[in-house]
Design brief:
The chain is of the alpha+beta class. The strands form 2 sheets. The protein has a 7-stranded mixed barrel with strand order 1-2-6-9-8-7-5. Strands 3-4 form a two-stranded antiparallel ribbon. A hairpin with a 4-residue loop joins strand 8 and strand 9. The chain is globular and about 75 Å long.
Length: 384
């Protein structure tokens, strides 16, 4: 079971429901360590004074904001803690807006909101169903880890989700950022080309199924890791990208794309003359992605069954190892306590049930959290 990263209450009007916040996504990409060439020695990153070339201890580091003249305004962590917003105990919904009015670019990170206990399920379900029926999202703000977030509360089939959002001044204007962006009316598009492009879009229409899409780079990287474990190499690579479509040939490219899309779409019946002209091998329409899967199986055909079973075993070892390394990285991130705010240190102390934490200074909290967390550290994974 996932562990909540924040807990408090979700308030709308005079209705309050205790909730917990959970991360909704995870990064599955393999993680690499830096090693010295020819050895298995890890390379660690140090904080170095760029003028003296000497390492600097965490306790001697302060934060500085660079001014236009190259000078710095220096802040201590205690000074920043004094102006930081306190840890929020509530997500206050200030209003409800039509979902269609919120542009996707404003959404940043997604979290799950769950009821804090089964006894709060009825009120939680009421808000979820009401949001789904109205097609609206609740706009709210709350504070987590010393930062104030603008958020949108949205209903999904089984859960409420919280999207952190960018503020308006964080969104870049594409017209100012992209020099070659054509303006309205500047790129001549005639009615015939527009109609063909719309027809091509309809021909290539699909139903959204996220399970149809895989991280092919990650799969190839996993295969390369396994191959290197057995002293093998990996052949093949990405095909070069197609050349840009010439404006003169645009209509021809659209028409050929529509024809090819119709042949690949099982919903579209090909004319009898076309069916007779096609070779027998192309009479059977393949579902989307079948050719890619067949090509992948063809690449794997030369692998001996015994070796394939061994690779499956190694894949499982890699998966278990990656889970262990992810837990290790979480512990390593937690060890850099000097970069945490006082509010974050207090939250960590609460998780570790540190006694007397409410009366401690920031330095005392850092020391207490370090001592309380030390016995919880696990051993490093030894799987290569």
């Amino acid at each position: 079971m996932a562990r909540a990263i924040w807990s408090g209450s979700l308030n709308f009007g005079l209705v309050t429901v205790p909730v917990e916040l959970f991360t909704a996504t995870r990064d599955q990409a393999p993680r690499f360590h830096q090693l010295e060439r020819g050895t298995a020695d890890r390379v660690r990153i140090q904080r170095i004074n760029e003028r003296t070339g000497k390492p600097v201890a965490f306790g001697d580091i302060v934060k500085g904001y660079e001014l236009d003249d190259g000078q710095y305004v220096v802040f201590t962590q205690d000074e920043l803690d004094e102006i930081a917003p306190g840890r929020s105990k509530a997500i206050e919904i200030s209003g409800f807006v039509d979902l269609e009015q919120v542009e996707p670019i404003f959404f940043a990170t997604t979290y799950y909101l769950g009821p804090k206990g089964a006894e709060y399920g009825r009120v939680y379900a009421l808000l979820r169903e009401a949001l789904a029926a109205s097609n609206r999202v609740g706009v709210a703000t709350f504070v987590m880890r010393g930062r104030q977030y603008l958020t949108a509360i949205k209903a999904e089939k089984q859960v409420l989700v919280l999207h952190t959002m960018h503020y308006a001044d964080e969104i870049r204007d594409p017209v100012k950022e992209i020099d070659a962006l054509p303006g309205t009316g500047e790129a001549a598009v005639n009615a015939r080309e527009l109609g063909a492009a719309q027809q091509l879009i309809e021909t290539l229409g699909i139903d959204w199924d996220p399970n149809e899409y895989k991280d092919e780079y990650r799969e190839r990287l996993d295969e390369l890791i396994e191959a290197k474990r057995h002293g093998e190499g990996l052949v093949g690579g990405e095909k070069p990208p197609p050349a840009a479509t010439n404006v003169v040939d645009l209509m021809d490219a659209l028409e050929r794309s529509i024809a090819r899309g119709r042949r690949a779409d099982p919903r579209v019946a090909a004319p009898q003359a076309d069916a007779e002209a096609e070779p027998q091998s192309e009479a059977k329409v393949e579902p989307a992605g079948a050719a890619r899967k067949r090509e992948y199986r063809g690449q794997k055909k030369g692998v001996a069954p015994v070796q394939e079973r061994e690779r499956a075993r190694v894949r499982e070892q890699v998966r278990v190892r990656d889970q262990g390394r992810e837990r290790e990285r979480e512990r390593e991130r937690a060890e850099d306590l000097s970069m945490l705010t006082k509010a974050e240190l207090y939250a960590r102390a609460a998780e570790l049930d540190v006694p007397g934490r409410s009366t401690m200074t920031r330095a005392q909290l850092e020391d207490a959290v370090a001592r309380a967390a030390r016995p919880r550290r696990g051993r490093r994974s030894t799987v290569a």
